[in-house]
Amino acid sequence: MEHRKFGYIRVSSKDQNEGRQLEAMRKMGITERDIYLDKQSGKNFERANYQLLKRIIRKGDILYIHSLDRFGRNKEEILQEWNDLTKKIEADIVVLDMPLLDTTQYKDSMGTFIADLVLQILSWMAEEERERIRKRQREGIDLALKNGIQFGRTPVLVSEEFKEVYRKWKSGELTAVEAMQETGVKN
């Protein structure tokens, strides 16, 4: 049975461009049909295309990831997914921007130990970066609120007349059409 190459790409939002990661996957000789893309946060692995990929990948297949932070940002979940793929499924993982994280190269116990150690450190760093992002975001929101910036929709002012018509409609004194006519709402 022939082993397949898969690529996994993640960008944090629909506005971000996956072009750089896609180009790297093409350079590895991965066909378009074997590249899986998710446009959402890396906070967990509940991503539709990642879950589909995980059901398809088999023993001996190789999963290419551009960088560990594109895989995920939660240390425990990164380690869990890494172990699921490499130990349970027995697929290989290659992190393109981190040559030490290439399970196709390090099959002996020392190589596995080094790769596992690097993975622990890098997944911790990815999680720390996520925490820094969240902290900066919270600080920015707090500062904006302090400076009087409003978030969300502008509150709608409801007149006493509207409230009275609404009460009549709720109690059955008016039909919906009559209530709309009294308040000037178009149907």
UniProtKB/TrEMBL annotation:
<keyword id="KW-0238">DNA-binding</keyword>
<dbReference type="InterPro" id="IPR036162">
    <property type="entry name" value="Resolvase-like_N_sf"/>
</dbReference>
<keyword id="KW-0233">DNA recombination</keyword>
<keyword id="KW-0229">DNA integration</keyword>
<protein>
    <submittedName>
        <fullName>Recombinase family protein</fullName>
    </submittedName>
</protein>
<feature type="domain" description="Resolvase/invertase-type recombinase catalytic">
    <location>
        <begin position="4"/>
        <end position="148"/>
    </location>
</feature>
<dbReference type="GO" id="GO:0000150">
    <property type="term" value="F:DNA strand exchange activity"/>
</dbReference>
<dbReference type="InterPro" id="IPR006119">
    <property type="entry name" value="Resolv_N"/>
</dbReference>
<keyword id="KW-0614">Plasmid</keyword>
<dbReference type="GO" id="GO:0015074">
    <property type="term" value="P:DNA integration"/>
</dbReference>
<feature type="active site" description="O-(5'-phospho-DNA)-serine intermediate">
    <location>
        <position position="12"/>
    </location>
</feature>
<dbReference type="InterPro" id="IPR050639">
    <property type="entry name" value="SSR_resolvase"/>
</dbReference>
<dbReference type="GO" id="GO:0003677">
    <property type="term" value="F:DNA binding"/>
</dbReference>
<dbReference type="Pfam" id="PF00239">
    <property type="entry name" value="Resolvase"/>
</dbReference>
<dbReference type="InterPro" id="IPR006118">
    <property type="entry name" value="Recombinase_CS"/>
</dbReference>
